[in-house]
Amino acid sequence: MKIIPAHNRVQIKQLLASVGLPTDDIDEDSSALFYLVEHQSEVIGLIGMECFQKEALLRSLMVKPAYRDQGLGRELVNHIQQTARRQGALRLYLLTTTASNYFLQQGFHSISRDETPEAIKATDEFSHICPASATIMCKELNT
After folding, report:
1. No. of H helices and E strands in the chain?
2. CATH: 3.30.300.20, 3.10.20.30, 3.40.50.360, 3.40.630.30. Which one for 3-140?
3. Which end of the chain has fewer beta carbons closer than 10 Å to its terminal beta carbon, N or C?
4. How many C-beta atoms surround the C-beta of residue 11 within 10 A?
5. C-alpha neighbours within 13 Å on the C-beta side of residue 127
């Protein structure tokens, strides 16, 4: 299985909606980059990222239920970390309402809303898509 860039915003929105993830700000003008994994011509995983100089925001990790617990999510997160590093990011942030334990296992730690950098606070995901109760997490990328 290979991770490849995803460009079809309609397909991206359908995949995210199929697992209950937000799609409100995913359109042709979005700066988010998405990557997918196919298996036998079926998309089985997807991840996205927005980069803001030294900060990056992990967007919308999803793996279809039949393919979970096989390390695919970890591969996608590693891919985004490498991509963010190549773009100059020093830290990767995310917001989650359901997967904080998963991301703790990936080396992320929880931070407060006050600790969140302005570039991340300015995103649609932070400001109005995710609820204020979402857990904000961060991982240093220089390690």
Report:
1. 5, 7
2. 3.40.630.30
3. C
4. 14
5. 9
Tens of pLDDT along the chain (143 residues) come to: 789 999 899 999 999 888 888 888 787 767 889 999 999 889 999 999 999 989 999 988 999 999 999 999 999 999 999 999 999 999 999 999 989 999 999 999 999 999 999 999 988 888 888 888 899 999 999 75
Q: Decide if 76 contacts 3 (C-beta within 8 A).
A: yes
Check: CB of residue 138 under 8 Å from CB of residue 111: yes
CB 134 within 8 A of CB 59: no
